[in-house]
Amino acid sequence: MFKQFVAAAATFFGLSLTAAAGNATVFGQEIGVTTYQTVADQLGRATPLRDAGTNAYSKGRMLESDGSGLNIEGLSKVLFIFDTQDKLVATLLTLPKGPMNDNVAPTISMLKRKYRAVRIQQPFVGDVEARFEQGSSVVALNAPHMSFDMNVTYMTRQFEQSYLSAQRAETERQKRHREASF
User: Fold this and answer.
1) Whole-number mean pLDDT of the chain?
2) For residue 137, what are the CA distances in angstroms to 1, 2, 40, 113?
């Protein structure tokens, strides 16, 4: 089963010995370049895609899939996020960590071969986090200690900044609300 996961993940991540010059790609779709229509046409043949509304950070449309038909064992969710010009700005994947986190290290290794590793934190016990970059895109892996799943997020740096700014603003709003309550 482990070998099947590694083989499927290698196909999924589109590994090659040399990284492409553009942005990160997932399922053959380049982050920051591919359009909504291209994702719908190309991936809609392989997996059922559903409208998932409008993204709060990019203000663009979203498509969602359960990952079936994409030939990745255990892939349970895929969310494609677009900007207002219908460019793909983020793709979020939910995958199993596996028993004893068996799938985390091979996934990090595959991403390391394809993208420039910026930070990898793999404690014996605790949350595993990794960050990779290519072009104007970022790939972030997050495997929370108390979860059975890991998330791999492909995104443009601009989308990441929008997300982080909104998170900081929300944290500040909650802090002010809490302080006002006392």
Assistant:
1) 89
2) 31, 29, 21, 16
Containing domain of residue 89, as a range? 2-181
What per-residue confidence (pLDDT) applies to 122?
86
CA–CA dist 57, 82 (Å, integer): 10
Residues comprising the chain, all counted: 182
Residue with tokens 């014996």: 124
Residues of the chain above pLDDT 70, percent: 88
How many domains are contained in the chain? Answer: 1
Please state the pTM of the whole predicted model.
0.84
Which domain CATH number covers 63? 3.40.1000
Strands 116-121 and 128-134, bridge-based pairing: antiparallel
Cα(136)–Cα(157) distance, integer angstroms: 6
